[in-house]
Specification:
By secondary structure, this protein is mainly α. Helices cover about 65% and strands about 0% of the residues. It has 24 helices and 2 strands. Helix 2 packs antiparallel against helix 6, helix 6 packs antiparallel against helix 7 and helix 7 crosses helix 21. Keywords: Membrane, Transmembrane, Transmembrane helix.
Length: about 475
């Protein structure tokens, strides 16, 4: 118990995660799965300019809409390191590896905010650390972190945003600087990935309701007079105001502009460009082809329930252990060892059931309200989007658990709290020992394919770029991983 509660335990887990994901980043062929070539392509476009707004965007084929797309922050920021690497004469693969390693660091940094969030929600250090460890041990987590993908910036920004929202929501008064941070960080998260918009919007609505509608007997005047403004107009304060205003202006230009011009914050490529231009983007072309070959199914409640239970949840759970690579013959995937597959399968359904059981109790607690409400709205948003595409195309599209990476450690922590209380009720005297045994069993299970172990145990030689200096370790790591895994 004390060992897991120690910050050094979490540091050790993060180090294991970073080392494994970094080795994957250095060795994997380019491109990996999760549309890495798409993200690298946009980064290369940005590398030729300074502005975050792409010049002559319509001249670039194969990426869909680049004129009005809002999810550009990661690509723009990640375009600067490759410029330096390219200037030194290094290859494209070396540039990709640099961005992959930076992506690993970005993803790992989310642990800081996730831990602070869980502790602020009242979760014990023991459960918080264990929940984060389980999350980082999922094969999917290392697979995503080691690729060039905007999820790796969305994760720390999203965790920091939720922490800021909870702190602002539970504070005795409005702290102007904190609310400003909520707006700025939330806007940055949306400019990284547009699917953060519902979380941003719902959180802002809840904050406004909490302070100006549910006033607990206080007048609006009292609320306004109680606002805590910055005491000093220092350079840092003015810099924060200017930087935040710039972020807000870019957010408004992109998303509010899209709503005004096209009626949607994220319009389809076909609403902005010609079909000939959009068809050069493989995702758009695939969707058009599927829609043309399939008569749209009705959006009915029975079909939605069937899709939820038979397709959506099943694929979300199964793909937590998925990883793969792009080879000369196409994309290849594997689920890794059977032990970790079954552990993740049973564990995922256990977490979902326990979280559902205590949902009402949690939503009555003030600190949990923005987390629960924004999480539910976001899940509904993703589900409706997936179900609509399933009905249009006749097959599931983008049903991937990485879209819920922000909420996965929170769900695991909720389940951990419930399990801890059940153990305490059955074993009041020896609960500490039982909890320690359970923690050891969980951690031991992830030696059977957790972190990067599955990758090295099951990766095929054509998944590896043997021109990379780190690839010389592949055979050793592969043998070691297969030795660790039982059966």
């Amino acid at each position: 118990m004390r060992a897991v509660s120690s910050v050094w335990f979490l540091v050790a887990v993060v180090v294991v995660f970073i080392v494994g994901a970094s080795l994957m980043a250095v060795m994997q062929n380019y491109p990996t799965v999760y549309d890495e070539d798409y993200h690298v392509g946009i980064i290369q476009i940005y590398a030729g300019q300074v502005s975050p707004f792409i010049e002559n965007a319509s001249s670039y084929l194969g990426f869909g809409d680049l004129d009005r797309f809002g999810s550009f922050l990661y690509h723009w920021l990640m375009s600067f390191p490759p410029r330096a690497v390219d200037g030194l004469g290094f290859s494209l693969f070396t540039q990709v590896v640099v961005v992959r390693l930076l992506s690993v660091a970005l993803f790992a940094s989310s642990v800081i905010w996730t831990r602070a969030l869980l502790l602020h929600l009242g979760v014990s250090r023991f459960v918080s650390h264990l929940a984060i460890a389980v999350f980082l041990a999922l094969p999917l987590t290392s697979a995503v972190a080691s690729t060039v993908n905007y999820d790796n910036l969305a994760q720390p920004l999203g965790a920091a945003f939720l922490l800021l929202v909870v702190r602002a929501y539970t504070a005795d008064r409005i702290v102007a600087g904190r609310w400003w941070a909520v707006l700025v960080v939330g806007a940055l998260a949306c400019l990284t990935k547009f699917t953060f918009l519902p979380i941003f919007a719902v959180s802002l609505v809840l904050l406004v309701l909490r302070r100006f509608v549910w006033r607990e007997g206080r007048s609006i005047g009292d609320v306004w007079r109680s606002i805590q403004w910055p005491r000093r107009r220092s350079v840092i304060v003015w810099a924060s105001i200017v930087a935040g205003a710039l972020v807000g202006a870019v957010f408004a230009e992109r998303y509010l502009g899209n709503v005004i011009l096209f009626g949607s914050p994220a319009p389809d490529c076909g609403e902005i460009h010609s079909d000939a231009y959009c068809s050069t983007y493989s995702v758009w072309e695939r969707n058009e082809r599927l829609e043309a070959s399939h008569d749209a199914d009705p959006l009915t409640v029975p079909r939605a329930i069937a899709f939820l239970s038979n397709v959506w949840i099943v694929q979300m759970v199964i793909r937590l252990s998925f990883f793969g690579a792009t080879t000369v013959t196409g994309r290849e995937f594997t689920q890794g060892p059977v032990i970790v597959q079954q552990f993740i399968l049973i564990g995922s359904y256990t977490v979902l059931v326990l979280a559902a059981v205590v949902l009402v109790a949690l939503i009555l607690r003030r600190a949990w309200q923005p987390i629960i409400v924004s999480g539910i709205v976001y899940a509904v948003f993703i589900f409706v989007r997936n179900f609509s595409e399933y009905s249009r195309f006749g097959e599931p599209i983008a049903t991937q658990p990485r879209y819920f990476a922000l909420f996965i450690p929170i769900l695991i922590a909720i389940a951990g709290v419930v399990i801890g209380r059940v153990i305490a009720s059955f074993y009041p005297r020896g609960s500490m020992v039982v909890k320690a045994v359970v923690a050891l069993c969980v951690l031991a299970a992830f030696t059977q394919g957790g972190f990067a172990i599955s990758f090295f145990a099951f990766a095929e030689p054509d998944w590896i770029n043997f021109g990379s200096p780190g690839a010389v370790l592949f055979d050793v790591l592969a043998r070691l991983a297969r030795l660790i895994i039982v059966g």
